[in-house]
Amino acid sequence: SEAVSPTRPPHTMVAPDLATADATTYGSAMLDSFKIDISHQEMERIIIELELIYKTQPGQWLPTTGIANMLADELGYEDTDEFEDALKSSFADFIGALPHIETRNLESELQPGLFRDVFRVIPDPPPEECTPQRLVLKIETRADLWRVLMLHPGAWVEIPELEFEIGQDHKRRVDSVYNHISASIFNLERHVEMIGDALERKGISDACDDLRRVLDLDQPATFIVTDPGGLSAFKPNEGVKVLSLEDTTGQYDRSARAVAVPEHEREMDKVD
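The structure assignment produced for this chain is given below.
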């Protein structure tokens, strides 16, 4: 049942590093503030679905227990207990470990005196405060493959040595470099099954082989992240070149970066 308290006063929990970060350090601060292993693909899947559900709901503050039940169902878990077994914690503790989630215990507007555990997704910095950027990482060691890369919506990756691109997405993607490449191989292999042209099939198969050689460190590769929103980041970021991305041609749509529900659109202090 949902956590309810008739007497407990409202309180707030938010990652201090993220709350005080400006737009130029927001991406790195967010990665540094995660208290879970976000290179695990299931964790990425859960976080992405959580953000998508939040954006589709009408309230600023969402009930923790209700969203846990919804997430468990959306992600295919048998029930909330199985979902929390996968999290290795309660859902409340899980979201409390996410730096871009703020949790509170708020009084219900419809039932005065009744307090409920709720949360919201902290909005990204406004686009006008963010600087479009290009991040460049040469993949030279196994440690480079296991760096975490957070791609904000609208960002894409090029590997010039292979003339290969990991395209844009409307979702935030957080995973290791290794898993970003592995996901591309998986998607290509699914796609090639639907292609009848032998020459095209061979080209895709060759691309998959080249990407596997990158994972084995047998193929030199550079990850070039073009980030119109300016909030993508590597962790650790040592050795990553950060270049300014001139936005003079209009080809980089900074508004494509997904943001949480704007502050001015919701009431902050009440929850139904």
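Interim note for the steering committee: The two ends are 17 Å apart (CA to CA). The longest helix spans residues 198-215.
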